[in-house]
Amino acid sequence: MTEYRVEYLIDTSILVEAQKTYPKSMFPQVWDQISWGIRQGIIHFIPDVIEELKKGNDELIEWISSLDGLSKLKTRDNKDVVLRYIEIIRFIDESPAYNDKALRIWSDGSIADPWLIAAALCYGHTIVTYEKPARVKGTPCGKPKIPDICKDFNVCCITILQLLASIKDCMDKENN
Description:
Helices cover 55% and strands 6% of the residues. It has 176 residues and is mainly alpha-helical. It folds into two domains: 8-74 and 159-175, no CATH class; 79-157, no CATH class. The two termini are 19 Å apart.
């Protein structure tokens, strides 16, 4: 019997916030677990997240660049991902839950969030983000949040603590 393995896509916010909340010097086990997940092919990135990190976090880029086995999934050069991206942008445009500002923000090609969700839809991965749902029923929102759009598209979205618990379970299984 083949065991099902959950795989994850990392949002930019996870690494940026983890660096603040769990500094490597004080919480090396957090970074060791994330590194292990990357080496095992459980944790993936999309190029858009790497590009967002390059805009302001040299330490994180240096850390990512040093990792063996870093998996960058295709997005803009994958027809299925592009079609899902268009579907997400169209949803934001047509949904009464979002206003014109939301559409402008997410249709900006440099924003990784819609590409992340499109990739998760195509590859069947779970998204890991620090973002919290922000949509209020009856009030058009100007800044879409990953968990809200994930819910609309039935994409699983978790926190870093849930990711770390899952990786710990995988590591424990490997050690037994």
